[in-house]
Amino acid sequence: MNAQAPIRPEAPAPVGLLAELTHRCPLRCPYCSNPLELDRRSGELDTATWQRVLTEAAGLGVLHVHLSGGEPTARNDIVEITKTCADLGLYSNLITSGVGGALDKLQALYDAGLDHVQLSVQGVDAQNAEKIGGLKNAQPQKMVFAQKVVELGLPLTLNSVIHRGNIHEVAGFIDLAVTLGAKRLEVAHTQYYGWAYVNRAALMPNKAQVDESIRIVEAARERLKGQLVIDLVVPDYYAKYPKACAGGWGRKLMNVTPQGKVLPCHAAETIPGLEFWHVTDHSLGEIWRDSPAFTAYRGTDWMQEPCRSCDRREKDWGGCRCQALALAGDAAATDPACSLSPLHAKVRALAVEEAAETPPDYVYRTIGSNIRSPLKEGAPS
Ligand code: SF4
Ligand code: FES
């Protein structure tokens, strides 16, 4: 293993590491980006291995570490891991639900050098939020947690994943962020892979709702300039061009799963045939540079038309590979979210149709469920 191996020019140094410390979580959100087959506690990496991974990440040039899950504070060693980030000069961002043991550990995390907190909020109205998150009494705990974060002087970001069950609350999310003293609010329309793909019909808003949510955000950005930054992630199915998913495959981010597999994006395991290397067998440097999963869709050589000759190919890198697999049945296809994809009209029609129907009940995220990934089954008929 050689953590300091030079990076070839086609593989720029990664800037971020998403450390999925555990898949355990008290919430059961139906849009969770974790895989359908969640890792169990017994298979999680130990503290020393995470510390080695973080040391290798710092050596590679990583700047930000997102301590995520599941609920990262469910790990007994979360304070130790956070301290390791601080000792290595890595900017640490705790991505948390704010429930379970999060509040009890917050002071120790602050003392250990935590830099930033990103708190998920499922809704503004408590009853609605708790229905979406699948946990009673979660909302008051989240509010107390947010207050404590701000009292400590830690920068707070609220993350709201938007879908038809809460899209009417976008203005409320903005007010809540201001009231709580958050510095940033993410209004992130649902990305449809993992559990969100299973729940797509229950989550898909209609175009008029989406347009209204964008209008509300744009007006608030003007009004709250200098007070609150609002990030808006627009929904792919109604977009003109796709996003550069994960900043482009193998260009910016590494995602380490609870068991130590290293992925180019959080949903990459849905793509059949990709070979993922493990932190116990290879250094992060080797994985970033040479592992088959990272090299598969890095750059533009793998692209088909229309991406291959498109002048946006180094802006959005062809969109999302996982979504291309889910909707086109081919991970190397143009993301059907793109208006230049031959499948775009069909995908848009699917969204319109689902949004017009009565939403089915949520399929809540659970460990040990036997739900099969529809992403592996290829394109819709
Ligand atoms: Fe992006 Fe490909 Fe669409 Fe061009 S054709 S905008 S590169 S997804
Ligand atoms: Fe895998 Fe977009 S989620 S490339």
Can you walk through the features of this model?
Interacts with PqqD. The interaction is necessary for activity of PqqE. It is an enzyme of class 1 (oxidoreductase). By secondary structure, this protein is an alpha/beta fold. Helix content is 33%, strand content 12%. It has 13 helices and nine strands. Strands 7-6-5-4-3-2-1-8-9 form a nine-stranded mixed sheet, with helices on one face. The longest helix is centred in the middle third of the chain and has 17 residues. It is globular. Iron/sulfur cluster (SF4) binds next to loops.
The kinds of small molecule bound in this structure are:
iron/sulfur cluster, FE2/S2 (inorganic) cluster
Major β-sheet annotation: 9 strands, mixed
Write down the overall mean pLDDT: 91
Shape, principal axes of CA atoms? globular
Domain Radical SAM core: 11-223
Enzyme class: oxidoreductase
Function: Catalyzes the cross-linking of a glutamate residue and a tyrosine residue in the PqqA protein as part of the biosynthesis of pyrroloquinoline quinone (PQQ).
Cofactor: [4Fe-4S] cluster
